[in-house]
Amino acid sequence: MKLTIFGATGGTGQELVKQALADGHVVTVYVRNPDKVTQEMPQLTVIQGNMNEPENIEQAIAGADAILSALGPTNNTPERPLTTGMAHIVTAMKKNGVNRLIAATGAGVADPRDKPQLKGLLFGLALRLFARHVLADSQGMVAAVRNSGLDWTLARAPRLNDDPGSGQIKVGYAGQGPGTQLARTDFARFMLDQLESDEWRQKAPMLSN
Questions:
Q1: What angle do CA 133, 88, 152 make, to 5 degrees?
Q2: Three-class SS string for 173-184?
Q3: How far apart are CA 147 and CA 152, in angstroms?
Q4: CA-to-CA distance for 64 and 62, rounded, in angstroms?
Q5: Which fold has domain 2-208?
Q6: Which of 99, 149, 172, 180 is 20 to 30 A from 41, comparing alpha carbons?
């Protein structure tokens, strides 16, 4: 497949790029700083730009079969760059006839299927108190995906780590099995596996090891 990956220079994004190339995909990455792209292969194209530049975003998406996003909020300010960026991605996908979108987000974003226990409720309260702008931006991004009319999957991760990964992933909803830790390698693997799976389409599962 031809894939476009956003957020490719972060921890999860780098894993997505590495594994996508290893799987034989042709990959385009859209990054603010090309110097942070560590891979160099003929199947990899790097396009430079910011998330507030819709023309460049459209260039990165044109010709793709699917889009993967590992974008995350970068600061706790009232501006919502993640929400705005995802809106541009959705618009560009529709304009170019690209329908499949797999996006990462955090465990703090709720889903109607969640049944959070006390620990989860306290975590949500802490986010609202101390990182309300980050949470609002993440919620706005998720809303843009859910309301896009596209064929989407939202992969929600708890605390990510750089462990080698076990390949053992619990997938479900808050309060129904998933724990509090996830290796980035396993997170990226799950996202890429959704390219060939219908199980989690139009859903936002929580993942953990």
A1: 85
A2: CCCCCCCCEEEH
A3: 10
A4: 6
A5: Rossmann fold (3.40.50)
A6: 99
